[in-house]
Amino acid sequence: MYVAVKGGERAIDNAHAWLAEERRGDTAIAELSVEQIREQLALAVNRVMAEGSLYDPDLAALAIKQARGDLIEAIFLIRAYRTTLPRIGHSRPVETEAMACDRRISATFKDAPGGQVLGPTFDYTHRLLDFKLAADGETPAAAEAAPRAEPVPHITSFLNRDGLIEEEETSDDTPRDLTREPLEFPASRALRLQSLTRGDEGFVLSMAYSTQRGYGRNHPFVGELRVGQVAVEMDIPELGFAVEIGEITLTECETVNQFKGSKTEPPQFTRGYGLTFGHTERKAISMALVDRALRWQELGEDNVGAPAQDEEFVLSHADNIQATGFLEHIKLPHYVDFQSELELVRKLRAEVAAAQAQMPEAAE
Amino acid sequence: MSKIDTRQGWISLLAKAPAEALARRWAALGIAPAFTWLRAPEIGGVMVRGRMGGTGAPFNLGEMTVTRCALRLEGGAVGHAYVQGRDKAKAEQAALLDALMQTDAAAELREKVLAPLAAEMDAAAAARAARAAATKVEFFTMVRGED
Amino acid sequence: MDTQALTGGFTEAPVQAARAFRAALEAMARPGRIETVAGAEPPAPLSVAAGTLLLTLADPETPVYLAPSHDTPALRDWLTFHTGAPLTEPGKAAFAVGDWAALQPLDAYRIGVPEYPDRSATLIVEMGDLSAQGARLTGPGIRDAAALSLPDVAAFQRNALLFPLGLDFYITAGDKLAALPRTTRVEAA
Hints:
The structure holds three protein chains of three kinds. Helices cover 40% and strands 16% of the residues of chain A. Chain A has a four-stranded antiparallel sheet with strand order 3-4-5-6. Chain A is globular. Chain C is α/β, with parallel strands linked by helices. The longest helix of chain C has 17 residues.
């Protein structure tokens, strides 16, 4: 029960002023610029774009500055801003096959066309704190080699040739949009993927990890992980043709999972799919594992009771803005309903005390 | 280069061109054509879609900011712009260029604006590809004496 | 697309849309009240009032049905360019536009479902004239009674019986509009 509480306007104004001061910190130290955040904290910017569900690096950087580095608070700002944008339309589905890959690796095929391209990865660093970064030294220039002209096809297309991996049926159905209609269960795979890509990275990571620890029977391999730029195309009615309206960085992960076959399906490899804004590997891989776990029903598998197989559990708790919104609301004044709880507890304690006082008499 | 010979090509090029580079080349032209707005620049969202498994049914990935506008030059040519980001000035320049490319200023604009922009963007992409190529793994396979 | 389709939209969208929305809101909240709107200059035969309503209320998520009286290529293009609203059949429409005869039969449109009575169609009825005379209106938002030159009475009475489901109406003529929500009781003059 919520009661409107008046008063505190002055306290709130003062709180906001102090917040601004705390945000700025020690004024003897240079102020952080939005451009610095965009360029030098790009992976934070990527997470805010992916979970804010809005691709705009400058806005994400601004949100991070305003939120003092609290990424979920920054995502909240982006989600709020997004609601003010008129929806102009939708793009054609992006062609990740034509991605200009900064990074492209496979744990299943060593020598695929296009090769293993490591890109700017943390994977082989030793995870030792680098104190040279604290000294603001110069960055060494990255090496260059002749750009490769070879095509970089999707690796799962090789497995497809021999029918070893399930096919993804091409279609042009219009996917439902959970930002326009409430999510209802059972949800289509398109809605699950939309929900997962904007879901909290920590939550999706933990759900994915749970499937690897036995809460679910998936044994995934990373068939392919690619990070790079794709063009975004849109049909323009007044022109009568489609044009590219921009270019975005995406991370795409295809997992290949064992599958021994079922009553309805022959033995084949099955797939999980992750696609996220920006360079966001952990999220894309996690998304692919959870996508695969949630597909147990359409693949005729058993529900072993794993949390990651429970669509309602996963999708209802994946959105960190919904989660923190409800969580944090318990800080709001609940004075009157707590008052009534207090009265109830006192009354019950009085009843228990009275009953105990009577019992010695009854026993005699 | 085919991408600046067709209308589809130059509209796409202008959409992706860095705002600062486009603004500089536009200013260097030193022209200010008279026009009326058909749609004043507006910032909106476009829902980007992906495909399941890269090849399957579409799903909604998330929105991107886009600025669009449409205008008509005094001579009658109509220009449209849909550019990534929140930049009304960039959208106006792109639409003016689209309209002017349908007049006899086309050859000059192709030479002074479109071709240089395309070259700069290709060079930036090539530089990135060169860095990626340097990180391609060259495997040494241990010969084990078997086939 | 013809250049004609590209003209005639809002020139100052935030201000004009806000004013038009306020007028549409007042008309629906106080049935019988006639509001004047401006901003749209659509191709014939769409009126300024109906065009302004569509610019304000229609977007890519509100399918629109153009009844035969108003289904022209020029209007289709104009609507697509300025609103992005998809064009559809009566049973899927959020908005339907036409003159009274062309909009029939009314049972072709969505009336909502018990969980979501708002998932219904709003009909924009184009008329030659609009005045505060004719059918008698009473009910929520109306002090005592109002009068409005409606094209029919029985049809609106039947619609009111469906409450909380049903259709809602805007009546437009030139640059004037009035509205009839499903809560209004309609009687002959």
